[in-house]
Fold this sequence. Notes:
The structure holds two protein chains of two kinds.
Chain A (H helix, E strand, L loop, with lengths): L15 H31 L4 H6 L11 H42 L5 H10 L5 H15 L5 H26 L3 H8 L4 H12 L1 H17 L2 H6 L6 H12 L3 H21 L1 H13 L1
Helix pairs in contact in A: 1-12, 3-6, 3-9, 3-11, 3-12, 6-9, 7-8, 9-13, 11-12
Chain B lengths: L4 H9 L8 H5 L2 H24 L2 E3 L6 E3 L3 H8 L1 H33 L4 H16 L2 H11 L6 H8 L16 H26 L3 H9 L4 H12 L1 H15 L4 H6 L11 H11 L3 H32 L1
Antiparallel strand pairs in B: 1-2
Helix pairs in contact in B: 3-15, 4-15, 5-9, 5-12, 6-9, 7-9, 12-15, 14-15
Amino acid sequence: MTAAVLVAEAPRERNVWGVIAKTFVQAFLICLGIVVLYPLLWMAFSGFKNNAQIFGNPFALPEVWAWGNYLQAWNQGVRNYITISLLVTVASGICTVLVSAWTAYGLTRTRMPAKPLVVGFVLGGLMLSPTVAVIPLVKMMQALGLYNTYWALIVLYTAFRIPFSTFLIRAYMLDLPRDVDEAARIDGATESQIFWKITMPLCRPIIVSCMVLHTLFAWNEYLFAMIFSGAQQTLPVGLTSIMAKHGTNYAVVFAAMTISALPIVLVFFAAQRYFIRGLSEGIGK
Amino acid sequence: MAATPSQRLNWIRAGGTGEFRLRDLLSFRWAAIAVILVGWFVYYPIVDNFIVSTTDEDIFTGEVTDVGLANYQRLFEDPVVWTALWNNFLYAVISVVFQVFGAFLLAALIEGLDSERMRRFWRAVYFVPSAISITVTGLLFYFIYQPEIGLLDALLRGIGLDALARPWLGDERTAIYAIIAMSQWQGFGYSTLLFAVAIQKIPRELYDAAIIDGAGPLRRLWNVTFPLTREMTGLMIIITVTGAFQVFNEVMVMTEGGPNNSSQVLGTWLYQQAFSENNFGYGAAIAAVIFVVTLLTGTAQLIYTRRRRVQL
């Protein structure tokens, strides 16, 4: 469909230079691919080595595949970190998507007064960064008794991601036809029936996109996780603890890093389509 | 009197009767949770931050004294703030070069490939680091830059450039650049993906017309692809600059702002002042600086998207 945008040519141009340029492009893409992937492979392979090998030749493949490092990393914390990360990601993801979908419905399907004001208020939150809010939030969380628990993260991830998710879902709902819900209304359906039975199923693609993007955010978030989660550490924070505890046992640290990177990379490949939709709608609408 | 369907529809749309709009008011319930959560946890802390920034708290007695603008005055006299601002600025400039313009060129190269399978393959490969958390990539590069086990120095020695090998993160002159380089490695695939989507939306006919007019690949890049993705370029610049002034994670993981505060950015300096030194008031003043910068870029983004929408 978009082939030939740059390199491929009309017949006249299909000459020596075209071939050379093409080869050059291919070589460049492959080199860049190596720069991107090699460090990640090095990380995964180093997790199988022992310290002697790590210090010996960083480029060598593991001589013995020491699965024990991965097991050790898993048992010495990664399991707990993953559990907390999963819990926080899923709980805040569901809350964010539900609240955002409700809000988007209210903003596109009801006769809510002062709509532009509500839209401005909710989407204006996009401009405010977590870094700026963090000091007052510490005091607030202490007052609420959520400090040092993962509940603080669930609440904050939800609150800070509502603006973006609402923005995405609202834009999608604006483009959806309204005939079906008008008809359902005439047939006596209540608002919440229309929301659950008609609007939500129609919004499924954008809901999945939102969920995937939220997962990317919550699984990787560091600032809030470091300050608020206390002993209930999520993966990113837990990794730095492992680093502090086992800093000299490099292989275990590498194994822990690999384990924590793997799920999100798999999610990306499994849900690539939704990922790209979410990203491109979020930015270039 | 039988109402026609369309009259009926209008009557329903109006919420039952012409005057009594209780139902309209009730529809606030759809947005209530979002408004409360965002107001409480996103807006209120920003306001509170300005209040905190005019105070000084004694952590032992818990006594809070009003110090007016003293914390802001201190900002100007603190050399680390200037280092941090400069580092954030460097971050912004280098990221714009690689993650906006570099990513644009790369996306154009990828979208120029003949096979859809290869295009999809490269987009996905380059995106992989963006899916991984900055903590993991930060730690990974902490090891890569390490003089003893690291890949970079081993590579430099391997090709005979021993003189260049150094503890990249332990050297005041190179620490911030090493961190920024990691960030480019991680982030360029993300913007490449977005540019690729933007390029895909360009109608094919424009390229066909350009080819008929005898335009070579570079002319097509300059006269078709670039102007037609200019909106995306503008947005990406704004987003990248905003992100550069909020940098925290990678610096924290890789150097904690060291050595000797040389790689400090506003975010890490805020964190250290507030949570290591217990200077909440001063930390809040640093936060206020970040707020002002991101508000400016955010407003620019808003104006930019607004204007664009009118043009469309």
